[in-house]
Amino acid sequence: TQLLEQSPQFLSIQEGENLTVYCNSSSVFSSLQWYRQEPGEGPVLLVTVVTGGEVKKLKRLTFQFGDARKDSSLHITAAQPGDTGLYLCAGAGSNFGNEKLTFGTGTRLTIIP
Amino acid sequence: SQTIHQWPATLVQPVGSPLSLECTVEGTSNPNLYWYRQAAGRGLQLLFYSVGIGQISSEVPQNLSASRPQDRQFILSSKKLLLSDSGFYLCAWSVQGASGYTFGSGTRLTVV
């Protein structure tokens, strides 16, 4: 069974601060995705990383896939209230044709104005 | 463009009553379809997935079942709901061969 642990579980910081959220597993994934979810809505895909060591930037968000494709991090620079939400990482199986995603435990981020 | 519709948005059902949640996808063919359940503010648990009409894989033993009567229709059902079936149910689709999911807006089910 593939498990993804996210840390921290909860994070509350002031607007303008930087933060990093971690997603760790003992399993290897063919790709890893990050989603953000607002209350009462479905998660929305932010990014997909595929190659070990890959770094992708989405405005103030920087995503990194670990070299061994077992872990990932999300760094937010100068956090804004609009960044508030539940952040979920999700890993795709390493078997070809297996598109099932295993979701992480989630990080609840609150940005205080 | 592709869209996914999930309904109802909110549902309150008594214990022992049946359940039917429907999800439809537009603008794509032969999608992978998924049903997830989410505990309050936490990660998602995969319940069922389907790679084609009539093909259903169950991930966890439970009081629920799924069906895919048409290519772009995915239904989650139960004959008799339990209190433990309460939760936020999410339908999602993906293109076969790719891993990005598009989620529906979810159904908040409360069993009373």
Write a structural description.
Chain A is mainly β. In chain A, a hairpin with a 6-residue loop joins strand 4 and strand 5. The radius of gyration of chain A is 14 Å and the shape is globular. The mean pLDDT of chain A is 91. Chain A has a single domain, classed as Immunoglobulin-like. In chain A, the strands form 2 sheets. In chain A, strands 2, 4, 5, 9, 10 and 11 form a 6-stranded mixed beta sheet that branches. Chain A has a 5-stranded antiparallel beta sheet with strand order 1-3-8-7-6, with no helix packed on it. The termini of chain A are far apart. In chain A, 0% of the residues lie in helices and 52% in strands. By secondary structure, chain B is mostly beta strands. Chain B has one domain: Sandwich (Immunoglobulin-like), CATH 2.60.40. Chain B is built from no helices and 11 strands. In chain B, the strands form 2 sheets. In chain B, strands 2, 4, 5, 6, 9, 10 and 11 form a 7-stranded mixed beta sheet that branches. A 4-stranded antiparallel beta sheet of chain B has the order 1-3-8-7, with no helix packed on it. Chain B is globular and about 40 Å long. Chains A and B meet through strand 4, strand 5, strand 9 and strand 10 of A and strand 4, strand 5, strand 9 and strand 10 of B.
Secondary-structure map:
The complex is a heterodimer of chains A (113) and B (112).
Chain A: E1 5-7, E2 10-14, E3 19-24, E4 31-37, E5 44-49, E6 55-58, E7 61-65, E8 71-76, E9 85-92, E10 101-103, E11 107-112
Parallel strand pairs in A: 2-11
Antiparallel strand pairs in A: 1-3, 3-8, 4-5, 4-9, 6-7, 7-8, 9-10, 9-11
Chain B: E1 3-7, E2 10-13, E3 19-26, E4 32-38, E5 44-52, E6 55-58, E7 65-70, E8 73-78, E9 87-94, E10 102-103, E11 107-111
Parallel strand pairs in B: 2-11
Antiparallel strand pairs in B: 1-3, 3-8, 4-5, 4-9, 5-6, 7-8, 9-10, 9-11
